[in-house]
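Last lecture ended with a question: if I hand you only a sequence, what can you say about the shape of the protein? Today we answer it with a concrete record. The protein is MBL fold metallo-hydrolase. Below, first the input exactly as provided, then the predicted structure, then a couple of comments.
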Amino acid sequence: MQAYPNSGSPDASRPEDRLPEDVTYLRTKISNVVLIGMPGSGSWVLVDTGMPGSASKIMKEARERFGSEKPLAILLTHGHFDHTGSIQDLLELFPDVDVYAHEFEVPFLTGAADYPPGDPTVGGGLMAASAPLYPNKGIDLGSRVKPLPADGSMPFLPDWRWLHTPGHSEGHVSLFRSADGTLVAGDAFITVKQESALAVLTQRREIHGPPTYFTPNWEAARTSVARLAALRPAAAVTGHGEPMAGRELTEGLELLSSRFDELAVPASGRYVDSAHIDPEA
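The predicted structure:
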């Protein structure tokens, strides 16, 4: 297994030092995007597209790392507004680049379905209270979106596999590279208390379950966290918060999994007693 810089030092000064060289993250206001590819190679894949208005920021980072080459593909962990906010702008820049998502997520990305509305009664804090204002309508990418291969392989990333990690959304996926234990978790779990505006502002690093106000299936979310904890990832970047590595990650994820109902599931709320999808699907 590759030794990560600072993998045993959870207080490393630079968040990017917690990830391998070919994986970087970029914060777009309240959510992260991930760029996978060796710097200077000109060959890269974008995971998620962040908040609206982030396309120029993403492309600036891409040019610095990969030159003028376009991405080979855009992969979506899921289709919530804060992960697809810049996708239309990017697709205009790259008219022949395809978007990949889980087959269960495709209806939300082709305008056939809308996400459940946010629940402002869970989680506490300004971010949670603002949940009714967050967009929950599906977007229509038409034929640009393709289902991920059923065998778990990743387009253009032969060393990676996708894992179905539903709960936060029906077709949520995480990406894992077993050769070095790198995990791109999306919102299956996150490393900041996303319900709190202060925590989001300061980016205080701590493992949490998926954002409570936009998670409609807690049974599936519990199963997904357990699946990821069992991988014992060496390093992870999530959809919100800074990357983690080493013991901080493995111990924190194991704790979240073992005490999920206590640490992640709200005591009450619109979706607390709901189980709309099969977590084993």
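Comments.
1. The first helix runs from residue 55 to 66.
2. The domain at 18-263 is CATH 3.60.15.10 (Metallo-beta-lactamase; Chain A).
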